[in-house]
């Protein structure tokens, strides 16, 4: 079934209102010690569930060289002392195309356990652990019991956090923990620690500069924080100069090209500049833009709207920085493009609640209704707008499809998402290709050959020993035309022979690797293999 996003959003709100009418009859006023234990338990449960699903998605051939493989390969290469910020694959000769020096954080963990599952589990734990400093921020600013735990649950139930956690691995997973810790330092008047932690977040990935700029502007509007806001903006300016003119191209011999994701502002003439500005305005005020903003507010029960300053100066600028991109995935916050917004939303909700202290003068039943709505709306949004773990590259904003939504909480009613027989078949096949051979494979298969002698993608095959294809599993990044043409080319190449062709899996092997008395058609899967 399909429906417009606005209809789905309206349905979500109506369901939450109906649930709130029942929940509001009960009072929830836990003691601080109990509340803290519940918050910690929720963070642990989140980490376990999403670590499990992340590992399952990797096993089920949903992850690929971009983006998980590049990060994993880069960190493992550093752990083996084979290069700094460089792997054996990826653009630019293997160098990381982002400013991510904080990636060295994972190196000691790879000395303990050299496994691709390290990053997937670590990412979920990192994102779950961020709920702890968030809880203490809430407890510092909110005196009423129950609300700190509620804000933590809003953070954990946010559909954008769910899809970010399940979308491969990104260094943006450091953002929430560092950002909430920075805000906690701010609340304890430790301004130097506040700036240090914000800068640490920038070293995870340069995109966090967008947040520090917005934070600086917000702080500058508060008289007591004017100097801190100026320091935040100055720090960000220095970071941008260092990243664009020192890190790239001197430390890392690449030109930083991700600015091309945004339309230019200035043109060759006044008319061209006006035209560029109109294009940007068209993106900001488009129907999709309104849908994106609505999708950000619903999981937090519209609490960020209660503080206009936070909403206008902190949240909207960061959101529009994504919406104004020429990249369709970034405009709709698909996959990891919501990373800079994920830590901002709970803070905006928290500051909105602080601003709304007037609710204390309202009748008790009204306060309970607001509290109940803040419980039911995040739950409803999580059920309706989280993605199922076996999906990739989908957005519910252009059109809402029930077969692609009803996410994590609906899995008990849809257990088939946990089973993918082709994955077991592939993992049995791949074990038959020893690591001392080179392999060319499509994106979602190539990630399993990173520890082989060499891996190349179908877009740039480098005369490998083996070609590995799966005609029934195709997860983005690979051009279908290039994919089909390469199979046709290898099939008629006299240097290769097809040694495996079953249920869509195809493996071509260099004939010189086969025994001289054996033809490809009669060869086992691998010489001396299983």
Number of domains: 2
Question: How far apart, in Å, are the first and last alpha carbons?
Answer: 45 Å
Beta-strand level of the residues, as a percent range? Answer: 5-15%
Helical content (DSSP H or I, runs of 4+): 40-55%
SS field, number of helical segments: 21
Cα-based radius of gyration, to the nearest Å: 25 Å
Mean pLDDT: 87
Order of neighbouring strands in the sheet with most strands: 4-3-5-7-6
Oligomer: single chain
Please tally the β strands and state the result. Answer: 7
Low-pLDDT ranges: 526-530
Indicate the structural class.
mainly alpha
Q: What profile does the largest beta sheet have? A: 5 strands, mixed
**Could you spell the SSE succession in H and E letters?**
EHHHHHHHHHHHHHHHHHHEHEHEEHEE
Question: Can you tell me the overall shape?
Answer: globular
Please, could you describe this protein's structure?
The structure is a single chain. Helix content is 53%, strand content 6%. It is mainly alpha-helical. The protein folds into 2 domains: 2-412, no CATH class; 421-522, no CATH class. The strands form 2 sheets. Strands 4-3-5-7-6 form a 5-stranded mixed beta sheet. A two-stranded antiparallel sheet has the order 1-2. Strand 3 (438-441), helix 20 (443-446) and strand 4 form a beta-alpha-beta unit.
What's the layout of helices and strands?
Elements: E1 2-3, H1 5-23, H2 32-59, H3 65-79, H4 107-112, H5 117-129, H6 131-141, H7 147-157, H8 159-166, H9 175-187, H10 191-204, H11 209-220, H12 226-251, H13 270-284, H14 287-297, H15 308-323, H16 328-331, H17 344-355, H18 364-385, E2 400-401, H19 421-430, E3 438-441, H20 443-446, E4 454-457, E5 466-470, H21 480-492, E6 496-502, E7 505-510
Parallel strand pairs: 3-4, 3-5
Antiparallel strand pairs: 1-2, 5-7, 6-7
């Amino acid at each position: 079934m399909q429906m417009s996003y606005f209809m789905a959003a309206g349905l979500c709100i109506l369901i939450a209102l109906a649930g709130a009418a029942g929940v509001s009859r009960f009072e929830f006023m836990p003691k601080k010690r109990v509340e803290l234990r519940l918050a910690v338990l929720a963070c642990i449960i989140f980490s376990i569930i999403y670590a499990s699903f992340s590992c399952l998605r990797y096993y089920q051939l949903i992850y690929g060289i971009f983006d998980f493989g590049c990060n994993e390969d880069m960190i493992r290469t550093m752990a083996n002392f084979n290069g700094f910020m460089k792997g054996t694959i990826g653009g630019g000769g293997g160098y990381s195309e982002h400013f991510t020096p904080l990636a060295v954080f994972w190196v000691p963990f790879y000395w303990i356990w050299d496994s691709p599952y390290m990053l997937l589990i670590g990412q979920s734990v990192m994102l779950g652990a961020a709920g702890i400093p968030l809880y203490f921020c809430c407890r510092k600013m909110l005196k009423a019991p129950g609300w700190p735990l509620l804000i933590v649950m809003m953070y954990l139930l946010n559909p954008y956090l769910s899809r970010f956690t399940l979308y491969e691995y990104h260094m943006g997973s450091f953002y929430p923990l560092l950002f909430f810790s920075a805000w906690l330092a701010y609340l304890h008047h430790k301004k130097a620690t506040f700036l240090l932690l914000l800068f640490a977040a920038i070293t995870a990935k340069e995109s966090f500069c967008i947040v520090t700029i917005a934070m600086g502007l917000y702080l500058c509007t508060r008289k007591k924080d004017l100097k801190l806001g100026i320091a935040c903006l100055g720090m960000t300016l220095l970071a941008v100069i260092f990243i664009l003119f020192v890190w790239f191209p001197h430390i890392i011999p690449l030109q930083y090209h991700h600015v091309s994701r945004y339309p230019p502002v200035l043109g060759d003439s006044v008319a061209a500049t006006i035209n560029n500005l109109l294009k940007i305005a068209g993106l900001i005020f488009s129907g999709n833009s309104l849908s994106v903003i609505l999708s950000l507010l619903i999981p937090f029960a519209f609490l960020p709207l209660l503080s206009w300053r936070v909403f206008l100066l902190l949240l909207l600028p960061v959101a529009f920085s994504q919406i104004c991109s020429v990249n369709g995935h970034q405009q709709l916050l698909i996959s990891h493009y919501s990373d800079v917004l994920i830590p901002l939303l709970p803070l905006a909700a928290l500051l909105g609640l602080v601003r709304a202290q007037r609710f204390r003068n309202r009748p008790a039943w009204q306060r309970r209704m607001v509290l109940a709505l803040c419980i039911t709306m995040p739950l409803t949004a999580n059920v309706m707008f989280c993605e199922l773990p076996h999906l990739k590259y989908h957005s519910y904003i252009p059109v809402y499809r029930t077969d692609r939504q009803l996410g994590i909480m609906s899995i008990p009613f849809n257990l088939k998402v946990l089973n993918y027989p082709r994955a077991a078949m592939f993992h049995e096949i791949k074990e038959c290709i020893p690591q001392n051979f080179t392999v060319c494979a499509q994106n979602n298969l190539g990630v399993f050959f990173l520890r082989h002698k060499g891996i190349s993608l179908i877009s740039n095959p480098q005369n490998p020993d083996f070609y590995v294809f799966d005609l029934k599993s195709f997860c983005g990044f690979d051009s279908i035309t290039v994919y089909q043409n390469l199979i046709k080319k290898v099939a008629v190449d006299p240097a290769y022979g097809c040694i495996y062709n079953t249920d869509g899996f195809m493996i071509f092997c260099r004939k010189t690797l086969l025994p001289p008395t054996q033809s490809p058609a009669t060869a086992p899967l691998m010489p001396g293999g299983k």
